[in-house]
Specification:
Rossmann fold, seven-stranded parallel sheet, 46% helix, DNA-binding, 5 domains
DNA sequence: GGTGACCATCTTTTT
DNA sequence: GATGGTCACC
């Protein structure tokens, strides 16, 4: 009882209302840092406490990491039972449900999930077989086609409409593109394949067409909560509506100012539609910010104030004082890297743990230079976003074999696997596949494939390996055996850098360790890929103290003591691809808003004035318009003083007790005493007395 | 038909 | 830096 009292007392009135409203539809508009996660966590705890079986609560989050973190926190409040709460992403839930109910629309429980790369491969295959890739034609490439198809599904628009608006130069190919789209859908169905969009689409269809499933699901999940609702699309909203049809107990939480996934069909207006979808919705607004200091919040508010459309009000905080955001004008990218590394070293000196520092950027490749610098300085970091382990070609090779074991009709994977053999090219692979296709057991049929001498040996080795793998059940052992088989192929195909790639295979193996079930392993690889990028996937580093480098998209929902936003220049942020339309630009602005609201105490905004742009080489980079439009009283320019100059200046000018000074970290202070060995004791407002090195402290006289 | 070497191209963000 | 396309050669 005491525990319950105490946790409810920690909430403000709005949060409390959200936690206490258990029945009926609720929409929570939660500004950045307004204790949204805490509210969800407490509500889960509250439901469990009221006697709702945890597995009847469904918590839909943007990543599974987010779900796990929330359930962990709920467990701290109320004990282990909270971990049994059902949770995950829309995609993983749909996947799970389709394994159970997919039969109703003709899918075996062993269907294969295509990630983006797989989908592109399939499209490419069909594109050539339809004769659409003859040379001399400017027919769209596989990645464009995949993006196009995905948009059509996620935004619920026709191909013609999207082409007309966004790819007018391809409009002449509309009939062919439409044919390819149909062909792609047929191909997936025929081979028991689903891409990301199909997971949602098919689950939606099951719900729509089978009222008995809807009823069952409503009983199974009596309470539904959705986080980051501003980043859902119409299809996801529909899924929620249908799943909750029996009871209407749905709480969605979101912030329209943080909507950053329009490019994949998310629509922040979904938030406003919610009350229409669920009549009688209670709306609760969380506007008090518990995260950032006032100067950071002032800047954030200024960013979002310029947004064309916004629905939430200004955030306020009770954390006055603190250091103004600092803007740094770097000569070039390496100067920017040096600057960031130096500040990080200083912060560490001041006692800020590395895990409390993050560097954020618009696109994954913006941090390449910094990564080198951090490595030179021996500063440990983990990078999120960008090329993931699972996307590396050699990992996909290995995984394709596993997919075949699970779904022998996955001829897309067959294609990939066969191409690896020496002496087998696209034509031969297709010929072999035609043979396999005729059989009801393609794996078995492999041994009877008529083979030419040039590749007979390789084919036989593949056959034997697959046969052997079929008899093993442990995921880890299977993978070990498979890597044994694959290693010689790896060395032949990637002869330039195979040792590096071999290490990735080891990482994959260590991931497999946790799994008993192959289908689970493969599904997780596709739906919840390990977030960190290639090559730093050591489980040990997870616990170590390290800096986070992350794309802003991957940093959503997280916070740090100090945040650096780098490469804030035109063409990079906002991205050159996003300046064409007002809407895209608005999304870039919200992205910037998300970036700055990640910071609690310290915020650095960096922009190199020269750098490389694709195609043009080294050019002058203009500061990002998002920086330029900020009122100058909201930030301070970092004044770089070379260490030697600073020392001379300090020595010659000579600080005296009573002098007023300013320090970038601690703000305004008064000199108390000048100590030997270039040290100085200063009293800072709000920070107390500090002893600083004149050599390192960048003091300014006031 | 397959391979390997050379060239150009273009790099957003994610389930 | 990786991918795609083209070409010469086996």
């Amino acid at each position: 009882m005491g525990r319950r009292r105490s946790y409810l007392e920690e909430l403000n009135p709005a949060q409390l209302e959200a936690v206490r409203t258990l029945f009926g539809p609720v929409l929570v508009i939660a500004g950045a840092g307004s204790g949204k996660t805490r509210t969800l966590v407490y509500r889960v705890a509250r439901l469990v406490e009221e006697g709702v079986p945890p597995e009847r609560i469904l918590l839909l989050t943007f990543t599974r990491k987010a779900a796990r973190e929330m359930l962990r926190r709920a467990s701290l409040l109320l004990g282990r039972s909270c971990e049994r709460v059902s949770g995950g992403t829309f995609h993983s839930l749909s996947h799970q449900m389709l394994r159970e109910y997919g039969r109703l629309i003709g899918f075996s429980p062993n269907f294969t999930v295509l990630d983006r790369g797989d989908a592109e491969d399939a499209i490419n295959l069909l594109r050539s077989s339809l004769g659409l890739s003859e040379k001399g034609r400017r027919f769209p490439k596989k990645d464009t086609l995949a993006a196009l198809f995905s948009k059509a599904v996620n935004q619920g628009r026709t191909l013609a409409k999207i082409l007309e608006r966004e790819y007018p130069h391809f409009f002449e190919y509309l009939p062919e593109i439409e044919r390819l789209f149909l062909e792609y859908q047929r191909y997936k169905r025929e081979h028991q394949l689903m891409d990301y969009d199909d997971l949602l689409l098919h689950w939606h269809r099951v719900l729509l067409e089978h009222s008995e499933v809807r009823a069952e699901i409503s009983r199974r999940f009596e309470f539904i909560m959705v986080d980051e609702y501003q980043d859902t699309n119409w299809l996801q909203a529909e899924i929620v509506r249908l799943m909750a049809e029996g009871h209407g107990n749905v709480m969605v939480v979101g912030d329209d100012s943080q909507s950053i996934y329009a490019f994949r069909g998310a629509n922040f207006r979904n938030i406003l539609e919610f009350p229409r979808l669920f009549p009688g919705t209670r709306i609760i607004k969380l506007e008090e910010n518990y995260r950032s200091t006032q100067p950071i919040l002032d800047l954030a508010n200024a960013v979002i104030e310029r947004a064309r459309e916004k629905y939430t009000k200004c955030l306020f905080t009770r954390r006055p004082g603190g250091q103004k955001p600092i803007r740094y004008r770097a000569r070039d990218e390496s100067d920017q890297s040096r600057f960031v590394a130096e500040r990080i070293l200083e912060l560490r000196e001041e006692g800020v743990p590395l895990s409390e520092i993050a560097v954020l950027f618009r696109a994954a490749f913006h941090s390449f230079d910094l990564e080198l610098e951090l490595a030179r300085q021996d500063l440990p970091f983990v990078k999120y976003g960008g090329l993931k382990l699972i996307e590396a070609a050699h990992i996909k090779d290995v995984v394709a074999h596993l997919k075949i074991l699970l779904n022998p009709f996955d001829f897309l994977s067959w294609h990939r696997v066969l191409l690896l053999l020496e002496g087998v090219g696209p034509r031969t692979a297709e010929k072999i596949i035609t043979h396999l296709r005729a059989s009801s057991d393609p794996l078995r049929a492999l041994s009877s494939v008529p083979a030419r001498p040039s590749y007979e040996k390789g084919l036989r080795r593949l056959t034997q390996t697959l046969e052997a793998l079929r008899r093993i059940s442990s995921v880890e052992e299977r993978l070990e055996e498979l890597i044994e088989y694959y290693r010689p192929l790896l060395e032949r195909i990637y002869h330039d850098d195979y040792p590096k790639r071999e290490r990735d295979l080891e990482s994959l193996l260590s991931l497999a360790h946790r799994y008993q079930d192959l289908s689970e392993f493969l599904a997780d690889l596709a739906l919840e890929p390990p977030e960190s990028a290639v090559a730093d996937l050591e489980p040990e580093t997870e616990k170590e103290d390290h800096i986070v480098l992350s794309t802003i998209h991957s940093a959503k929902g997280l916070e740090w003591h100090t945040v650096f936003v780098i490469s804030l220049c035109e063409g990079r942020f906002p991205s050159a691809y996003a300046v064409a339309s007002e809407e895209e630009l608005e999304e870039e602005r919200r992205l910037f808003y998300v970036a700055v609201t990640r910071a609690r105490e310290g915020l650095y905004l960096c922009h190199p004035v020269t750098g490389y742009l694709p195609g043009e080489g080294r050019v002058i980079l203009k500061p990002s318009r998002f920086l330029e439009e900020l009122p100058s009283e909201l930030w301070e320019e970092w004044r770089e003083i070379p260490a030697e100059e600073a020392r001379e200046e300090a020595a010659s000018a000579g600080f005296r007790p009573g002098d007023l000074v300013w320090h970038p970290q601690f703000g305004e202070g008064e000199v108390r005493e000048v100590l030997p060995a270039e040290k100085i004791r200063i009293y800072f407002l709000g920070h107390g007395e500090k002893t600083l090195h004149l050599k390192f402290a960048r003091l300014e006289r006031l």
